[in-house]
Amino acid sequence: MNVPRDQSDNSNEPGAISGVGGDAGLGAKLTRVRRTYGMCGARVTSKLLLHRLLPSERFLHDRVQDVRAFDAEHGVETSAIVLPAALGITGASAEHAVEYSPTAVKSFYFMMRRIGIDPSRYVFVDIGCGKGLVMLLASDFRFQKVVGVEASAQLCEVARSNMAVYESPSQQCMNLELYEGDATAFPMPENNTVYYLCNPFGPVVLDTFLDRLEESLSACPRDVLLVYDYPEPAYPVLDRHPILRQVENYETISPDYTWCYYENATFRGTAE
Ligand SMILES: C[S@@+](CC[C@H](N)C(=O)[O-])C[C@H]1O[C@@H](n2cnc3c(N)ncnc32)[C@H](O)[C@@H]1O
Asked: Which helix (H) or strand (E) holds 178?
């Protein structure tokens, strides 16, 4: 089953709107507001706008709110944030890890609609899967397999228990796998793959991961899509890897809801 591509907003040329910060023209600002609305709805957009105008606690938007609702509905625990020092990651990557904080549920479904692929052609891999929230969300699509890669043993425990209790009438992929270990050592599947990264680590580790992806693609050409949520810190590294070309840069009024996606230079789509 294809996920039909959401084409309601076609101002999607790579880099069409640049800089999430402040110096964009009125047109670009309005586009960001419209995109935020399309992705998060009226309530979240109003709170984000109010907070920009009046930076007060009252207007702070809690991004994890919809994840708490998801947890309550499914009897899982994916919403509580875990600071880097409490992740218990060891080895060279430890100092580059960022906190565990989950992807907003609504945004994930939005991104999936936006990239509009036939999931049955792909394995889905969440790099830095934390407590497994995105694995559970991705299992709502008919992927060949959903894989989570996580370096924190504590979070892997939580992810396993979440996977064990999760039930949903909308689940379409039952083939879920967890790889406990560093993303830079993960044996990449030789299938067409959607890689999902929600700001899992700093540029040094990302660079190593992308070098490995390049090597793997040269050795075994295939289609790869890379979706990056909260990409601001990652742009310079992503730009250094010409094997990936940006398809869309979806900037909104909040870096929390900004994401982009790339495909590999030899991407063929369904033309096989
Ligand atoms: C921002 S959280 C994202 C969680 C999940 N992907 C989501 O979107 O809900 C980043 C995760 O990356 C993990 N991580 C950090 N460095 C890692 C590494 N080198 N290898 C694998 N996972 C890592 C962290 O432990 C954390 O769980």
From this structure: strand 176-180
